[in-house]
Amino acid sequence: MRQIEELKFLDALYYFKEHTWAKVEGDFVRVGITDYAQDQLGEVIFIELPRVGLELAIGDEFGKAESAKIVSSLYMPISGKVTAINYELEASPEIVNSDPYQAGWMLLVQPADIIELRNLLTKDKYIAMLEKNE
Question: Residue 84: CB partners within 8 Å, gap ≥ 6?
């Protein structure tokens, strides 16, 4: 596992305490797991994602990520309706390890209330939380 300062975090994202991120894209929010989360998992060998159309609330489990060492639940950073999932991850789940913020995205969500993003963490607050928990 890498040190926190070796990991990548992007300014344009909102971070959830359960190690998922949210990125506003027009009327939708793209969701994935953080570089920290993929690093903790190790090599991801399977991703389970929800069906399109499912409505979920903040903190709801939306899927699972499996590595050789653990199966980890994935949690929603924002409430909304799943409008798309990244089918590429079915065949190549390791994309999450190599590119968690771009090609390794997981869901596209139509948010129930975009104001919920205010409850998420900025990059600096997320890093501070990680450092505190080290």
Answer: 52, 107, 108
Q: Could you tell me if residue 2 is inside a domain?
A: no
List pLDDT tens digits, range 57-86. 999 999 999 999 899 999 999 999 999 999
SS3 98: helix
Instruction: Write down the pTM of the prediction.
Output: 0.96
d(CA 112, CA 130): 28
Calpha distance 54→35 (Å, rounded): 26
Does residue 6 lie in a domain region? no
Quote the CA–CA distance of 64 and 20 in Å, as a whole number. 12
23 within some domain: yes
Total structural domains in the chain? 1
Neighbours of 54 (CB within 10 A): 16
Residue with tokens 């939380």: 129
